[in-house]
Amino acid sequence: MQPSEMMILAAALALAAALLLRRLLRPKAKERRHRRKQDQARRVLAKINTIPLMPQRLAYLRKIDPLTFEELLLEAFERRGHVVRRNPSYSGDGGLDGSVVIEGETYLLQAKRYGKHINRAHVAAFGAVLAARNCSGIFIHTGRTGAGAKDVAAADPNLTIVSGQRLLDFLNTGDIERSSGLHGRT
Q: 30-185 has which fold?
């Protein structure tokens, strides 16, 4: 083999090794998607409090991607110093969008981006998950809480619903304990 052929072969092997290494070190598609949604959530969190009126802010939240809404809530909890656990994937999460530790107690989270009234069955299903896991949870949504959903939540001392002004207050101040009455419901 000629020296020039050896140089070409060495360069080709080096290039192949570099491409293989890059592919092995590149985050998986699921990780990249999570990161992208987290970046979008940070931008939404920065923008939401610049919108002047409450109805406009809720309308804006109702239009964002549902997965970005989940990440928005998790990001808001993290910024307030709470320990957050994200699910490894967005689908097949068993009705849970993550969990947060508030003053030593773990709360499961369910985030729903509704345009109208929330589905009572979704609240009841989340309550069943909380009962099965024997823990407390926060159902956070952008819709309207109808009487049926309020009745389901009122019957479950471990379930707290956060929406409307309380949701906006949480995104603004981060004070979920006072805005949602968690400590009165646990």
A: Restriction Endonuclease (3.40.91)
